């Protein structure tokens, strides 16, 4: 049976850009089609199609339509404003080593990029007695969006790793969720602080939901702790590796598929 052709990514335009912390760049993009987005999709992922440096718009648009495929990376919608036709995307600034970080650093108002998605939000329903959230900077947007979407009477704990103390952000978490900011200055080494803190938590009681994402080494250890040792059902535990030290995204995704198979 023939497969359906892939849909050409939609185009969005840069409206604004700023460094909201020393290592986090926020890019606001706009498009008419964004007015049809659901107001509740903050935290959902999408595929970002990235123009090459100084690439003419018409060349990029032709590549989206006919190939060769531009660089693609997975990102999170941090905020969405359908009434204005806007989304905010937060990028970890790790220099020009990767195409997404490099694009976020160089993009200017009026530049374009491609968008495919969005995917589903990570926690669709909130029903837990206790929430456990953990993220490094790559996953801070999904963790922050999840904390802000929780019921205001939610209880739990969050461990958020940032590169410097100045990278802490204002996150509107429920009063009953204890948010801990952990400084991990070397992203080229696996962070262990979240692992240590979660492993030291008292035994879970009642229903627990998790939103945990970040570097693959951290995720492997926390999946072992949350699911295998503490017995949280897989359906209640969002635990996802967003990247792996030493691998680009395509290599990391290939490794995840191989391990899942």
From TrEMBL:
Q: Name one Pfam family in it.
A: SIP
Q: Where is the FAD-binding FR-type domain?
A: 7-125
Q: Superkingdom of this entry's organism?
A: Bacteria
- GO terms, molecular function: oxidoreductase activity
- InterPro entries found in the cross-reference section: FAD-bd_FR_type (IPR017927), FNR_nucleotide-bd (IPR039261), Riboflavin_synthase-like_b-brl (IPR017938), SIP_FAD-bd (IPR013113), SIP_fam (IPR039374), SIP_rossman_dom (IPR007037)
Q: PROSITE patterns recorded for this chain?
A: FAD_FR
CDD domains for the chain: siderophore_interacting (cd06193)
Q: Family, per the entry? A: Belongs to the SIP oxidoreductase family.
Listed PANTHER family: FERRIC REDUCTASE, NADPH-DEPENDENT (PTHR30157), NADPH-DEPENDENT FERRIC-CHELATE REDUCTASE (PTHR30157:SF0)
What is the official name of this protein in its record?
Vibriobactin utilization protein ViuB
- Organism in which the protein naturally occurs: Octadecabacter ascidiaceicola
Recorded name of the encoding gene: viuB
């Amino acid at each position: 049976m023939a497969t359906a052709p892939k849909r050409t990514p939609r185009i969005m335009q840069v409206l604004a850009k700023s460094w909201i912390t020393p290592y986090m760049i926020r890019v606001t993009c706009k498009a008419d089609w964004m007015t049809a987005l659901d107001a509740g999709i903050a935290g959902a992922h999408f595929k970002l199609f990235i123009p090459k440096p100084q690439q003419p718009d018409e060349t990029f648009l032709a590549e989206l339509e006919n190939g060769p495929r531009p660089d693609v990376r997975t990102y999170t919608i941090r905020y969405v404003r359908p009434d204005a036709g806007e989304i905010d995307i937060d990028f970890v600034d790790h220099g020009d080593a990767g195409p997404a970080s490099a694009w976020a650093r160089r993009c200017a108002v009026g530049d374009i990029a491609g968008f495919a998605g969005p995917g589903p939000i990570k926690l669709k329903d909130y029903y837990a007695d206790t929430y456990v959230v953990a993220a490094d900077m790559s996953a801070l947007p999904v963790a922050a969006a999840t904390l802000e979407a929780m019921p205001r009477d939610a209880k739990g704990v969050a461990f958020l790793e940032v590169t410097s103390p100045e990278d802490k952000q204002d996150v509107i978490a429920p009063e009953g969720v204890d948010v801990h900011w952990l400084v991990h200055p070397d992203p080229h080494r696996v962070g262990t602080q979240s692992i240590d803190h979660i492993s030291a938590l008292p035994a879970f009681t009642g229903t627990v939901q998790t939103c945990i994402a970040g570097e693959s080494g951290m995720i492997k250890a926390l999946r072992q702790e949350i699911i295998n040792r503490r017995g949280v059902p897989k359906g209640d535990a969002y635990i996802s590796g967003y990247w792996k030290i030493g691998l680009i995204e395509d290599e990391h995704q290939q490794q995840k598929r191989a391990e899942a198979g």
